[in-house]
Amino acid sequence: MFKGIGDMANIMKQAQEMGGKMQQLSEELKTKRVVGKAGAGLVEVEANGLGEALAVRIDPSLIEKQDRELLEDLLPAAINSAQQKAKQLHAEHMESLTGGLNVPGLSEALGQLGGGPPAV
Hints:
Distance between the termini: 45 Å
CATH architecture: 2-Layer Sandwich
CATH superfamily: Nucleoid-associated protein YbaB-like domain
Number of helices: 4
Order of helices and strands: HEEEHHH
Strand content: 15-25%
């Protein structure tokens, strides 16, 4: 019976350590940058590794054309591209954190602990 308590204490300790690593990962991903593009680069969105948009760049020629409809189409596409790249970056970092261990749902669960990127 006491062995079970010791195992539980060990599991709790490992969970706390993983939570700390997730916090570190989250802080590191905040410093990483990805760029999503749309319209052959006419619109670019820069985001951090958590998928938070940081900057938007619009080619001046697109503004000169005053094509509001095109701009409204390109902005979400560029945002989605940046978020997808951030999600991939997060997955790569999670893989290195878990040592390549592929347990279904583990990345999502750990992402919740460390404030991972929003689902896209």
